[in-house]
Amino acid sequence: MPPAGPPRRLLGMALLKFDPQHALAGMRAIKAVVSTEGTMLDIQRTAMQLAQQHVLHVEADIDALAPISPEELAQVFVDPAERRQLVQVMCGYVMLGQQLTPPYLAAIRRYARALDIDDPAVDQLHALMDDHITWLKFDFRRRGLIGDVIKQAYRDDGLRGAARTVMQIIGHHEDPALAARFDALERLPEGTAGRALWRFYTDRGFVFPGHKHGTPLPLVPHDLVHVLTGHDTDVLGEVRTLAFQSGFKRDKPLMFLFLLLYATHLGVDMVALAPGVSSMRDFFARPGVLAEVFQAYARGAAMTVDLLDGHFDVWSVLDLPLAELRARFNVIPLAA
Fold it and tell me: Structural domains in the chain?
């Protein structure tokens, strides 16, 4: 193995990319956690193999990996951001294996203590194990994208802005001028991003922001991601889109993957995932789904901009040709 330098970050992204030494130590710790009461499950092994291919870019025999103690791990991982991400990933792998029993939580906490990390993901996993779903949903949402949007509205326009944003999110805010602006996208030339966004909404019967019961304005960048990537709005399409967003998100990127684990794999009613579907179980266990998730993440990681940072101006790009916008943002074409 080549000499190990300091862990490297994925350029411009919050999701970290580790050198071989750190990648190997992290995999050893994850394997130790998920093997707490036996052996690693096939779905977890597959996820680790895909992580090696699409995220870590290393090759290791997963079955031959020896455990690493919390103390030894703390000697390898010294940066707080790297430590925090690793603890979050441990929680994700436990949820992937549906190992919702106290010994697995205790194993994560041992590593978290050694790494001196107190992360909400661990508390949310605890709430899930204890069936405290209402608290889990509240805490996840306030720390996630919805909470960020409301906080940004408050910073921009005080209580009035926050209240208006909440009303938009729950579908009780009408804005005729905003509605007319979105409706006017129909008049843009074919091939532009705005015309494609208009078609995306009308083909699916979605309602533009500003109209009664319209789409919340903060969700429009997510819909633009659908347009850019070509992902549909069925369950698999939403899974791919949220995984893609994890790739380009610069702040709290793993929240989308946690949302997917809660809503599609563990049956927690978190969000209207797709038309007629609010939650389901075992979706990640279906053949090929994990590969789709990691491939979509890798496409998102190649992006040059975070469309969900609260500052991206959708209107600034809608008159551009869609092909030009994809090239500008480095959206890798879907594999044939």
Answer: 8-131 (1.10.3680), 145-329 (no CATH)
